Amino acid sequence: VAVSTxxxxxxxxxxxxAAHATDDREARQRAAVDGVVPQIVLSPASTxxxxxxxxxxxxxxxxxxxxxxxxxxxxxxxxxxxDVVLDLRRLDRIVEYNPDDLTVTVEAGVTxxxxxxxxxxxxxxxxxxxxxxxxxxxxxxAATNASGPRRARYGTLxxxxxxxxxxxxxGVTTWGGSxxxxxxxxxxxxxxxxxxxxxxxxxxxxxxxxxxRPDVERTSLVVMPDAAAAQRFSARVVDSVLQPGRLEVFDxxxxxxxxxxxxxxxxxxxxxxxxxxxxxxxxxxxxxxxIAGAGAATMDAEFWRRYERAWERVDGGALVTIGSLPTRVxxxxxxxxxxxxxxxxxxxxxxxSAMLGSFRxxxxxxxxxxxxxxxxxxxxxxxxxxGHVMVQGASRDVRANVDPWGPVPADALALMRSIxxxxxxxxxxxxxxxxxxx
Amino acid sequence: VPLSPQFLEALxxxxxxxxxxxxxxxxxxxECDMHTFYKGAPDAVALPSTAAQVQAIVRLCxxxxxxxxxxxxxxxxxxxxxxxxxxxxxxxNRMNAILEIDIPNRCATVQPGxxxxxxxxxxxxxxxxxxxxxxxxxxxxxxxxxxxxxGGPHCLKHGITTNHVLGLEIVTGAGELVRLGDAVSDRPGYxxxxxxxxxxxxFGLVTAVTVRLMHAAEAVKTALAxxxxxxxxxxxxxxxxxxxxxPAALEMLDEVMIGAxxxxxxxxxPEKSAAVLLIELxxxxxxxxxxxxxxxxxxxxxxALDVRVxxxxxxxxxxxxxxxxxxxxxxxxxxxxxxxxxxxxxSKLPVIMRQMEExxxxxxxxxxxxxxxxxxxxxPLICYDDRDPDQLxxxxxxxEELLAAAIALGGSxxxxxxxxxxxxxxLPMQYADADLNFMYRLRGVFDPDRLMNPDKLLPSHPACGExxxxxxxxxxxxxxx
Lengths: 438, 481
Hints:
heterodimer, A: 8-stranded antiparallel beta sheet, 16 helices, 22% strand, globular, B: alpha+beta, 5-stranded antiparallel beta sheet, 34% helix, 19% strand
């Protein structure tokens, strides 16, 4: 660093205000990322303040780690450097809500819960529901492309982010996309920002596509004897005129956590529509279940909240996602069981979308090396059909033991490297954390 | 600069004589797409039949710095498949096979030249379909749909092309054959597939596409409502959406269009109405019935003159027939037209309808409207006689003014047709220099020599190099400098 730390702190204070730039030792330690203690913690309150902060940091070649609620700071490879932590939670304004257009523009620090409360008054919602989204910021959800059961019908933030404002590594504020529900004007920059973990720019504002809440939503639970039967049943639902809003399959550990059964594989299907259609679709599902030799039980309104709690993170544990295929539901569960033999006695829960073949695995507390073995084994099995395993959250030791991203094909990786090199040649945005240590 | 005999020989060695067109009359066929205003014949047309040939062509062109222009069926509306600077046009029509249909995994992999509707035809009997349905779907290619990120009447509910693309195989402008994504969900790293869809051939050429298939709904219901003004119809559109109904399609036609369609197609749309709304719902039978009734009620509450619901497939087809043949029917009104594709926020439809009338009067041009009202995607056809230069000038002025009005309301330059050659100059209306600079550099990642479909998608800039100069933030004066 070319200038005195004191002068630098004064510079940041001139940008965000004295109260929102702290180099206090305790505050810095609390903001540490993977044990890397930043030199300063900034809480900007506007895109302009983010831009000026990034520009100043860049001029001093300081590494920047943007953060929202902090729930996924344990994602990715261990941070290499973290000189400036940009806490975006003061960017908490809902900038413009147009219920008639089913669009909303928010600052990146707005939590999904705060937005939901506003949208609820107009019977609308943002169809992004990864576990514990309510306390997470929308900027963080976009940067990690987090998704949940509703993805089967509505897609992920990739499909719902219409426009995005972000600050590039040199401090230049940039806008991509549009504020309307349909636009193909120029490159689809929002798609590039979703899931990029802030490595190409710091997201400060987003325009999102919303949906109307259905009149009625009802969930049925079918418990099948094993994963193969659950896969067959799900496939039958998918290859029918039924239009489930959510279709999740999950193992006995999740069933146990839900308190509904101790064995078997659960299939939860929800329908949302006008009452008559929900009745008809539920009846059709019940009859499909009967044909498959099982019963369908109607769940109460709290079911999905309980399902969410089944994915509560355990200290010292890990959260893993598996990219797989609908035809590999049973194989994927089998792969999880096989990998779990690396960590005997540890609670392992698996579940996910049977329509998409995307799964989530929660692993209880275990030694870092053992968790690394679990991931390696899992990867070894699902690779046979092109599956991917990503560690979404685990201690630094686990992520130092096993690459949390897994392999990226060489041709795609070369393009990714080139993109990173183009937009952040000094590697100042979240250095080292993204795929291949970008 | 015409291509050298050596270059043409090398090209012939790749695609064979039967895959190469160099004659004047042969090249003339390829001088424009559906935007016949812009013409630029390529110096040669290559018709490869494998990805390896595509790659060899790009590598050859890169070696000699020859522009490459991809082309599917040539049904684009933006001058995208036109050789603005000559060079080699690569027609992908021979690569039109369905490589794999995988219904259990809800996807199919196809070659880029495959006609959009052929894919649905191949899976319809099993109850499935490919959702993106541009009006050109009987002739347009899926590779072209990917390049332009095509929409269609039913994308209101089902999404545009990018929402249905899972994987791509492309030959980049650097001559690399890369496989991005596949049927497997959730892969690590940047969303290269999402970034490449809609790149209009400026990143390279698509040689294979893995797309999502959808299961057909239990029921489809189509209704037609007529109104005494466009504003009333526009308000009904907003009210339907506000009621929580998401129709599969929600299309609007104006008086001029209704007249042309009735005269040309005999669709039997209500005469003497100033606006017609076509409302299509799909989904579970009970939902469709309840929502069709509710939508009809809303239309009546908003002063609809008449609401009809198609009772069977034949009636439904007739209701759609007029809409689908609208562009052709306009031929009765004027020899040719400019087609605008701007978008406004749905709630601003009544405002833009008023402004459109004023613009038409001010420039003394005839406007015919047929558009995707549900997502605010305008499609005014600005009629003119190309033999009269004054008419053309007025049509162009009205077109630009309309676009400006849509942007001023918070809209977008293009909803589904794309930028191409036609609208490259308009991008700065929506994007600042910093935004364009970002896109310009993004393009460089895939096309380092700027040979892929030059002069399309991005405006050319008088300054070379980075072109668009973004503004850096002004830092407060301080001791650290």
